[in-house]
Amino acid sequence: MTVPYDLVIGDRAYSSWSLRGWLLFDAFGIPYKQHKARLYTDELPTLLKAFHPARTAPTIRTPDGVVIPESLAIAEELAARHPQMGIWPAEPKPRAIARVLAAEMHAGFTALRSHCPMNLRVSYTDCAPPQGVLDDLTRLETIWAWAWQETGATHWLCGDYSAADVFFAPVASRIATYNLPVGARAMEYVQAHLAHPSFRQWRAMGLVDGADQEFYRRDYPTRLWPGPTPLPARAVDGTGAENTACPYSGKPITHVMELNKRRFGFCNAFCRDKTVADPEAWPKFMALV
Protein backbone atom coordinates (compact mmCIF):
# COMPACT_ATOMS: atom_id res chain seq x y z
CA MET A 1 0.00 0.00 0.00
CA THR A 2 1.26 3.46 -0.90
CA VAL A 3 2.24 5.57 2.10
CA PRO A 4 -0.06 8.65 2.17
CA TYR A 5 1.05 12.23 2.57
CA ASP A 6 1.22 13.72 6.06
CA LEU A 7 -0.78 16.95 6.36
CA VAL A 8 -0.51 19.37 9.30
CA ILE A 9 -3.45 21.72 9.89
CA GLY A 10 -4.59 24.17 12.58
CA ASP A 11 -8.09 24.98 13.88
CA ARG A 12 -10.58 24.32 11.11
CA ALA A 13 -12.83 27.26 12.02
CA TYR A 14 -10.03 29.83 11.88
CA SER A 15 -6.97 28.65 9.95
CA SER A 16 -7.48 29.93 6.42
CA TRP A 17 -4.19 28.55 5.14
CA SER A 18 -5.00 25.14 6.63
CA LEU A 19 -8.27 25.20 4.69
CA ARG A 20 -6.32 25.72 1.48
CA GLY A 21 -3.93 22.88 2.22
CA TRP A 22 -6.74 20.50 3.14
CA LEU A 23 -8.80 21.35 0.05
CA LEU A 24 -5.83 20.52 -2.16
CA PHE A 25 -6.12 16.97 -0.85
CA ASP A 26 -9.80 16.46 -0.16
CA ALA A 27 -11.29 18.22 -3.19
CA PHE A 28 -8.98 16.35 -5.57
CA GLY A 29 -9.12 12.92 -3.92
CA ILE A 30 -5.49 12.61 -2.83
CA PRO A 31 -5.00 10.33 0.23
CA TYR A 32 -3.41 11.86 3.32
CA LYS A 33 -2.85 11.31 7.04
CA GLN A 34 -3.95 14.32 9.08
CA HIS A 35 -2.13 15.90 12.04
CA LYS A 36 -4.04 18.71 13.80
CA ALA A 37 -2.82 21.24 16.35
CA ARG A 38 -4.61 24.09 18.09
CA LEU A 39 -3.51 27.63 17.25
CA TYR A 40 -2.17 30.01 19.93
CA THR A 41 -0.89 27.10 22.02
CA ASP A 42 2.32 25.06 22.10
CA GLU A 43 0.63 22.32 20.10
CA LEU A 44 1.55 23.56 16.62
CA PRO A 45 5.24 24.37 17.22
CA THR A 46 5.60 21.08 19.09
CA LEU A 47 4.01 19.14 16.23
CA LEU A 48 6.12 20.94 13.63
CA LYS A 49 9.36 19.82 15.29
CA ALA A 50 8.84 16.64 13.30
CA PHE A 51 8.46 18.65 10.08
CA HIS A 52 11.67 20.70 9.97
CA PRO A 53 12.05 23.45 8.75
CA ALA A 54 8.30 24.21 8.73
CA ARG A 55 6.82 26.69 11.18
CA THR A 56 3.27 27.14 9.90
CA ALA A 57 0.17 25.17 8.93
CA PRO A 58 -0.42 23.78 6.43
CA THR A 59 2.68 21.71 6.04
CA ILE A 60 2.95 18.38 4.26
CA ARG A 61 5.45 15.55 4.10
CA THR A 62 5.44 13.66 0.82
CA PRO A 63 5.53 9.84 0.78
CA ASP A 64 9.25 10.05 -0.05
CA GLY A 65 9.91 12.31 2.94
CA VAL A 66 10.08 15.84 1.49
CA VAL A 67 8.66 18.54 3.81
CA ILE A 68 6.73 21.32 2.03
CA PRO A 69 5.46 24.11 4.32
CA GLU A 70 3.88 26.65 1.94
CA SER A 71 0.43 26.26 0.40
CA LEU A 72 1.42 27.52 -3.04
CA ALA A 73 4.39 25.15 -3.09
CA ILE A 74 2.07 22.37 -1.90
CA ALA A 75 -0.27 23.07 -4.82
CA GLU A 76 2.53 23.00 -7.37
CA GLU A 77 4.09 19.82 -5.99
CA LEU A 78 0.81 17.94 -5.78
CA ALA A 79 -0.04 19.02 -9.33
CA ALA A 80 3.32 17.75 -10.56
CA ARG A 81 2.97 14.44 -8.73
CA HIS A 82 -0.71 13.94 -9.62
CA PRO A 83 -1.27 15.53 -13.04
CA GLN A 84 -4.41 13.48 -13.60
CA MET A 85 -6.22 15.14 -10.69
CA GLY A 86 -6.77 18.50 -12.43
CA ILE A 87 -5.33 20.68 -9.67
CA TRP A 88 -4.44 23.24 -12.33
CA PRO A 89 -6.40 23.63 -15.61
CA ALA A 90 -5.07 21.42 -18.39
CA GLU A 91 -4.98 24.10 -21.11
CA PRO A 92 -2.12 26.66 -21.09
CA LYS A 93 -4.16 29.89 -21.02
CA PRO A 94 -6.53 29.07 -18.14
CA ARG A 95 -3.65 27.40 -16.29
CA ALA A 96 -1.56 30.55 -16.55
CA ILE A 97 -4.46 32.72 -15.36
CA ALA A 98 -5.16 30.33 -12.47
CA ARG A 99 -1.53 30.61 -11.36
CA VAL A 100 -1.67 34.41 -11.53
CA LEU A 101 -4.78 34.44 -9.35
CA ALA A 102 -3.37 32.02 -6.78
CA ALA A 103 -0.09 33.92 -6.55
CA GLU A 104 -1.81 37.27 -5.99
CA MET A 105 -4.05 35.76 -3.33
CA HIS A 106 -1.06 34.15 -1.62
CA ALA A 107 0.81 37.44 -1.38
CA GLY A 108 -1.85 40.14 -1.19
CA PHE A 109 -5.14 41.39 0.28
CA THR A 110 -3.57 42.22 3.65
CA ALA A 111 -6.23 44.76 4.65
CA LEU A 112 -8.99 42.22 4.11
CA ARG A 113 -7.11 39.53 5.99
CA SER A 114 -6.35 41.81 8.90
CA HIS A 115 -9.80 43.33 9.39
CA CYS A 116 -11.70 40.13 8.57
CA PRO A 117 -9.86 37.04 9.86
CA MET A 118 -11.51 33.78 8.86
CA ASN A 119 -14.18 32.62 11.30
CA LEU A 120 -16.52 29.89 10.10
CA ARG A 121 -18.56 29.83 13.30
CA VAL A 122 -20.46 33.07 12.85
CA SER A 123 -21.83 35.55 10.34
CA TYR A 124 -22.25 39.27 10.99
CA THR A 125 -24.64 41.81 9.54
CA ASP A 126 -21.87 44.40 9.15
CA CYS A 127 -18.22 44.86 10.10
CA ALA A 128 -17.73 48.52 9.12
CA PRO A 129 -15.06 47.69 6.50
CA PRO A 130 -12.45 50.46 6.17
CA GLN A 131 -11.32 51.78 2.81
CA GLY A 132 -8.44 49.34 2.57
CA VAL A 133 -10.85 46.40 2.78
CA LEU A 134 -13.16 47.99 0.21
CA ASP A 135 -10.16 48.45 -2.10
CA ASP A 136 -9.26 44.78 -1.67
CA LEU A 137 -12.82 43.78 -2.55
CA THR A 138 -12.69 45.91 -5.68
CA ARG A 139 -9.45 44.21 -6.66
CA LEU A 140 -10.99 40.79 -6.06
CA GLU A 141 -13.88 41.57 -8.36
CA THR A 142 -11.49 42.96 -10.98
CA ILE A 143 -9.34 39.84 -11.20
CA TRP A 144 -12.28 37.46 -10.94
CA ALA A 145 -14.05 39.25 -13.80
CA TRP A 146 -10.81 39.17 -15.80
CA ALA A 147 -10.52 35.42 -15.29
CA TRP A 148 -14.12 34.77 -16.33
CA GLN A 149 -13.76 36.94 -19.42
CA GLU A 150 -10.45 35.41 -20.51
CA THR A 151 -11.36 31.78 -19.85
CA GLY A 152 -15.09 31.80 -20.58
CA ALA A 153 -15.71 30.09 -17.25
CA THR A 154 -19.25 30.27 -15.93
CA HIS A 155 -19.01 28.74 -12.45
CA TRP A 156 -15.46 28.53 -11.12
CA LEU A 157 -12.68 30.93 -12.06
CA CYS A 158 -10.90 29.09 -14.85
CA GLY A 159 -13.19 26.26 -15.89
CA ASP A 160 -13.43 23.29 -13.56
CA TYR A 161 -12.69 23.72 -9.85
CA SER A 162 -8.92 24.21 -9.55
CA ALA A 163 -6.19 25.41 -7.21
CA ALA A 164 -7.18 28.99 -8.08
CA ASP A 165 -10.54 28.38 -6.45
CA VAL A 166 -8.90 26.64 -3.50
CA PHE A 167 -6.89 29.78 -2.80
CA PHE A 168 -10.00 31.97 -2.78
CA ALA A 169 -12.12 29.66 -0.61
CA PRO A 170 -11.14 31.48 2.63
CA VAL A 171 -11.92 34.83 0.96
CA ALA A 172 -15.37 33.53 0.07
CA SER A 173 -15.82 32.55 3.70
CA ARG A 174 -14.78 36.05 4.83
CA ILE A 175 -17.33 37.66 2.53
CA ALA A 176 -19.95 35.34 4.04
CA THR A 177 -18.82 35.86 7.63
CA TYR A 178 -18.57 39.66 7.52
CA ASN A 179 -21.33 40.35 4.97
CA LEU A 180 -18.87 42.21 2.78
CA PRO A 181 -20.23 44.21 -0.18
CA VAL A 182 -19.61 42.57 -3.56
CA GLY A 183 -21.55 42.47 -6.82
CA ALA A 184 -24.01 39.81 -7.94
CA ARG A 185 -21.54 37.76 -10.01
CA ALA A 186 -18.98 37.75 -7.21
CA MET A 187 -21.67 36.73 -4.73
CA GLU A 188 -22.65 33.82 -6.96
CA TYR A 189 -19.03 32.71 -6.83
CA VAL A 190 -19.04 33.02 -3.03
CA GLN A 191 -22.19 30.90 -2.84
CA ALA A 192 -20.56 28.25 -5.02
CA HIS A 193 -17.78 27.97 -2.44
CA LEU A 194 -20.19 27.76 0.50
CA ALA A 195 -22.00 24.89 -1.24
CA HIS A 196 -18.88 23.01 -2.36
CA PRO A 197 -18.95 19.49 -0.81
CA SER A 198 -15.45 19.68 0.66
CA PHE A 199 -15.98 23.19 2.04
CA ARG A 200 -19.24 22.13 3.69
CA GLN A 201 -17.47 19.23 5.41
CA TRP A 202 -14.60 21.45 6.58
CA ARG A 203 -17.02 24.02 8.03
CA ALA A 204 -19.12 21.33 9.71
CA MET A 205 -16.00 20.02 11.41
CA GLY A 206 -14.90 23.54 12.25
CA LEU A 207 -18.14 24.25 14.06
CA VAL A 208 -17.42 21.47 16.59
CA ASP A 209 -13.61 21.42 16.49
CA GLY A 210 -12.69 22.66 19.98
CA ALA A 211 -13.55 25.80 21.92
CA ASP A 212 -13.87 29.27 20.39
CA GLN A 213 -10.61 31.16 19.89
CA GLU A 214 -10.91 34.53 21.63
CA PHE A 215 -8.57 36.19 19.12
CA TYR A 216 -11.33 35.96 16.49
CA ARG A 217 -14.21 37.24 18.60
CA ARG A 218 -15.91 40.41 17.36
CA ASP A 219 -18.82 42.41 18.79
CA TYR A 220 -20.68 42.99 15.53
CA PRO A 221 -24.40 42.08 15.26
CA THR A 222 -24.88 38.54 13.98
CA ARG A 223 -27.06 36.88 11.36
CA LEU A 224 -27.61 33.32 10.10
CA TRP A 225 -24.85 31.74 8.02
CA PRO A 226 -25.65 32.60 4.38
CA GLY A 227 -24.65 29.19 2.98
CA PRO A 228 -26.82 26.07 2.61
CA THR A 229 -29.19 25.62 5.55
CA PRO A 230 -28.38 22.42 7.49
CA LEU A 231 -31.07 19.86 8.24
CA PRO A 232 -32.35 20.16 11.84
CA ALA A 233 -30.46 17.51 13.80
CA ARG A 234 -29.45 17.21 17.44
CA ALA A 235 -27.25 15.08 19.67
CA VAL A 236 -29.13 12.73 22.03
CA ASP A 237 -28.23 10.42 24.89
CA GLY A 238 -28.01 6.66 24.72
CA THR A 239 -26.69 4.18 22.16
CA GLY A 240 -29.90 2.96 20.53
CA ALA A 241 -29.87 3.68 16.78
CA GLU A 242 -31.06 2.36 13.43
CA ASN A 243 -27.52 1.52 12.36
CA THR A 244 -25.21 -0.84 14.21
CA ALA A 245 -21.89 0.65 13.05
CA CYS A 246 -20.50 4.14 12.49
CA PRO A 247 -21.04 5.15 8.84
CA TYR A 248 -17.51 6.55 8.69
CA SER A 249 -15.35 4.02 10.54
CA GLY A 250 -17.50 0.92 10.77
CA LYS A 251 -16.82 0.79 14.53
CA PRO A 252 -19.46 0.12 17.22
CA ILE A 253 -21.97 2.82 18.22
CA THR A 254 -21.14 5.01 21.24
CA HIS A 255 -22.82 8.34 20.39
CA VAL A 256 -26.20 9.08 18.81
CA MET A 257 -27.97 11.90 16.97
CA GLU A 258 -31.60 12.44 16.01
CA LEU A 259 -32.84 13.62 12.62
CA ASN A 260 -36.52 13.69 11.68
CA LYS A 261 -37.31 11.57 14.77
CA ARG A 262 -34.85 8.89 13.59
CA ARG A 263 -31.75 7.95 15.58
CA PHE A 264 -28.36 7.34 14.01
CA GLY A 265 -25.20 6.20 15.77
CA PHE A 266 -21.48 6.96 15.52
CA CYS A 267 -18.24 5.70 17.03
CA ASN A 268 -17.29 8.93 18.84
CA ALA A 269 -18.55 12.39 19.72
CA PHE A 270 -16.72 14.12 16.87
CA CYS A 271 -18.24 11.85 14.19
CA ARG A 272 -21.68 12.56 15.63
CA ASP A 273 -21.21 16.29 16.16
CA LYS A 274 -19.80 17.03 12.71
CA THR A 275 -22.84 15.25 11.27
CA VAL A 276 -25.26 17.17 13.49
CA ALA A 277 -23.62 20.40 12.28
CA ASP A 278 -24.51 19.70 8.63
CA PRO A 279 -25.97 16.23 7.90
CA GLU A 280 -26.15 16.71 4.13
CA ALA A 281 -22.41 17.42 3.94
CA TRP A 282 -21.67 13.73 4.60
CA PRO A 283 -22.58 11.30 1.77
CA LYS A 284 -21.88 8.22 3.90
CA PHE A 285 -24.36 9.44 6.49
CA MET A 286 -26.96 10.47 3.93
CA ALA A 287 -26.78 6.95 2.50
CA LEU A 288 -28.23 5.79 5.83
CA VAL A 289 -30.97 8.40 5.71
What secondary-structure arrangement, pairings included, does this model have?
Elements: E1 5-9, H1 16-26, E2 32-36, H2 43-48, E3 59-61, E4 67-68, H3 71-81, H4 92-107, H5 110-115, E5 123-124, H6 131-151, H7 163-178, H8 184-195, H9 197-207, E6 222-223, E7 233-236, E8 255-259, E9 262-266, H10 269-277, H11 283-288
Parallel strand pairs: 1-2
Antiparallel strand pairs: 1-3, 3-4, 5-6, 7-8, 8-9
Helix pairs in contact: 1-3, 1-7, 4-6, 4-7, 7-8, 9-10
Strand order in the sheet with the most strands: 2-1-3-4
Uncertain ranges: none
* Tally of separate helices: 11
Structural class: alpha+beta
- Written as H for each helix and E for each strand, in order along the chain, the element string is EHEHEEHHHEHHHHEEEEHH
How many domains make up the coordinates?
3
Helical fraction equals 40-55%
User: How many strands in all?
Assistant: 9
Oligomer state equals single chain
Percent of residues in beta strands?
5-15%
Q: Describe the main β-sheet briefly.
A: 4 strands, mixed
CATH topology of the largest domain: Glutathione S-transferase Yfyf (Class Pi), Chain A, domain 2
